[in-house]
Design brief:
The chain is mainly α. It contains 8 helices and 2 strands; from the N terminus they run ααααββαααα.
Length: 139
């Protein structure tokens, strides 16, 4: 689903207008910019994100134009359930336990590997000696 569909669903469920919920649902799906398939959901579509991050960004409650207060955690849960056809809200552990652990993820200075993004930066720097990390990230 796209953010507009989620926002329309929130307006239908809680009142107010679709536009009032659009920023929220766009934020929930913003991880698509980091990873373009449904694995992006590992970042934002989990119980930790909706209980910890969402309230820090949007507050615990929003008040719509009809004067109704809506829990932002509930909006996040609704969003995730809509994406998963009403079946589940995964935990962060559900996603992260499927990621193989590599030594570069630790804090030790004795590692034998590095993230792919770092390898690409270093290769690019070797080629033209001008690219900086921030230039690579800006893309």
């Amino acid at each position: 689903m796209n953010p507009h569909i989620h926002a329309a669903s929130s307006a239908k469920r809680y009142g107010g207008t679709m536009e009032e919920y659009l920023d929220f649902h766009t934020f929930m799906d913003s991880s698509k910019a980091a990873f373009p398939d449904n694995r992006h959901r590992a970042l934002t579509h989990n119980s930790w994100f909706i209980r910890t991050v969402i309230p820090r960004v949007f507050g615990n409650l929003i008040t719509n134009s009809e004067g109704k207060t809506v829990s932002t955690a509930q909006l996040g849960e609704d969003h995730i359930l809509e994406d998963h056809h009403g079946k589940w809200v995964p935990t962060a552990q559900d996603y992260l336990s499927k990621v193989p652990y590599e030594d570069w993820m630790g804090s030790t200075k004795h590692v034998s590997s590095c993230p792919d993004s770092h390898r690409k930066i270093m290769e690019n720097q070797e080629k033209n000696k001008t690219t900086k990390y921030i230039d690579f990230v800006k893309g």
